[in-house]
Every structure is written in structure tokens, then in C-alpha cells.
Amino acid sequence: MHIALQACSARHPSAQAEAPPALKAIDLVLAQGGQVAVIGPSGAGKTTLLHLMACALKPTQGQLLLDGRDPWALRTAELQRLRGQLCLAPQVPPLPPRQRVITAVLAGLLPGMSLWASLGSLLYPRQIDLAETALARFDLAEKLFERVDRLSGGERQRVGLARLAVANARLLLVDEPLSALDPERARQACASITAVAREQRATLVATLHHVDMALQHFPRIVGLRDGEVVFDLPTAEVSPERLTDLYARHPDELTGAAPPLALSVADAPAVALTCR
Ligand SMILES: Nc1ncnc2c1ncn2[C@@H]1O[C@H](COP(=O)(O)OP(=O)(O)OP(=O)(O)O)[C@@H](O)[C@H]1O
Ligand SMILES: [Mg+2]
Q: Which tens digit of pLDDT belongs to each residue from 185-205?
């Protein structure tokens, strides 16, 4: 899916009147199949940006175009159809506690199903192989029939990510997918997310606190701060100085901020640059 944000601003409906907009006149273009990581300090507007692209939040100014169409100008049925082509993986996946993992993963298929097929899938999940293969990508295949409330936080997060692999969406929006994962699982999850997007020819936007993972796995990085794009660059051009500047007021969120100053970008993948 092709995405274009033209001078897009956004504010949360429950935000206080005097609060600045969460996003301020953002311009961003992403080609079909493009992959971008959005980084920046807490409160920068990363999640808000994903919600805007997911058509969950309407721009207060400017325009969002998905495949050249303004979703907010569509009829309700068309907007629903469009939303069915998007898959948003929130940081904490909303999984019903008593649900089996297989059902939770196959829920990724629901937007493309009829009402009766979705009810059938919820009651008697059939595509076992599909769910198992998706879970295996996140090293969780053995939990296929486990109940969600018996999983650890990291395992639940990976169930949410496995949904992406079955969703067959045209736009994957992933919010902080690594926050509950250990370094090796984080690396594997990042590699799997980007591989799934490539295989499905989907456009991928992921917000990441793990700057090192963003640099290793994504070809393009958008640095966001105070609702504004500070830089939008191919990964090779994201210098340690830019990163230090992006997190200047919150250096604690860029742990390992001292070493990158002496690093070349080529060395960056080897360095622990983990935020929060
Ligand atoms: N539901 C909400 N209601 C009101 N204001 C909100 C809401 N969610 C976020 N905001 C505000 O919007 C701004 C951007 O928040 P957002 O969640 O997009 O930041 P973020 O970059 O994702 O931060 P984090 O790294 O902590 O997840 C912040 O100033 C925040 O206080
Ligand atoms: Mg966020």
C-alpha cells in the first residue's frame, strides 16, 4: 500500500485543550512495500502516527492518502474494507485471557472473513498449520493450544506478532514489538516481521525503542520528536550525532548513548543502543 501524509496534524480527542497537537504538520511518503522504523523519545507521537495510518484517528489538519485515496472521504463500507487491508499490532495485544493461542493467532484472518466464517473460526479453528507456521516464526509453535492467560508477557507479545503473519494485510503497523522480549528474541522477531512484510509485499511501519534493531533491520529511519519529523533518512545516513541529538533532552532513553559518538554507522549494528 502506498502511504502519503501531507501536512498531517493530529490530536487525541481526550487531550486537554491547551495541550499541543500530538503530531504537527507531518509530511511522509512511503512506497508500496517500503519498510520504515519510527524512533524517538517517549511522547514523540510514534503511536499516534501509527493510529493515524490505521485510520483509527482522523487528522485534524492535512491529509492522509492510502493508495491515493483519502480514507476519511470514503463511505463507511469502503472505509471498513480499507481497514480490513491494514493490520495494527499494538504494543500490548488485546488478547482475551481464556482464549487459546491458535484462536488468538487466527483472529488475524478475521477482517477478510464473512461473519459466519469468523464465528466458525473462533469456535473451531481449522487452519492449524497456518497458525503453527506463524507461531514458529516467533519461536512459539509449542504454545499452539496453550491458553493466553498462561503465557508470559513476552510470549503474549509474540502471539500478537504472529497475527501479522496470517493477516495477509497490505499495510502492517507495529507498535513497539520488542518491548517485552529478550535481545535474542527481539532480533528474531524483528527479522521475522520484516521478512513477513517482504513476502506479503506489504508496506511496514514499526515504532521501535530499540534503536539498534531499527538500524539493523530497517532500510529507512524516521526520527520523531514533539510531534515533528526531525529526520527521515536511509539507515546508512543516520549518524550517531543525529541519534544523540534526537534524544538530547532524554539521553536516559538512549542507553549506550556515549559509545555511538565514536562509532561509524557501519559499526552500529554491533552496538547495544537500546531505549527504555
Ligand atoms: N489517549 C490519549 N489522550 C490524550 N493524549 C494522548 C493520548 N495518547 C497520547 N497522548 C499524547 O500524545 C502525545 C504523543 O503520544 P504517543 O503515545 O503517540 O507517543 P509515543 O512516541 O508513542 O510515546 P511512547 O514512546 O511513550 O510510546 C503525548 O504528548 C501524549 O501525552
Ligand atoms: Mg507509543
A: 999 999 999 999 999 999 999
Spatial separation of the C-alpha atoms in residues 112 and 168, rounded to whole Å: 9
Give the count of domains, the chain: 2
Helices then strands, each counted (H, E), the chain: 9, 9
pLDDT in tens, 37-69: 999 999 999 999 999 999 999 999 999 999 999
pTM as predicted: 0.88
Q: Closest Cα to residue 200, out of 85, 92, 110, 52? A: 85
254/244 Cα distance (integer angstroms): 8
Say which CATH number the domain at 175 has.
3.40.50.300
Q: Is 223 in the pocket of ligand 1 (CB under 6 A)?
A: no
Burial class (CB in 10 A: 0-12, 13-18, 19+), 149: exposed
Where in the sequence is the domain holding 109, given as residue range(s)? 93-168
Residues 142, 264, single domain; the answer is: no
Indicate the top mutation candidate among 26, 39, 47 to test ligand 1's pocket, ranked by most ligand atoms within 8 A of CB: 47
- For ligand 1, the distance from its centroid to the CA atom of residue 258, given in whole angstroms, is 27
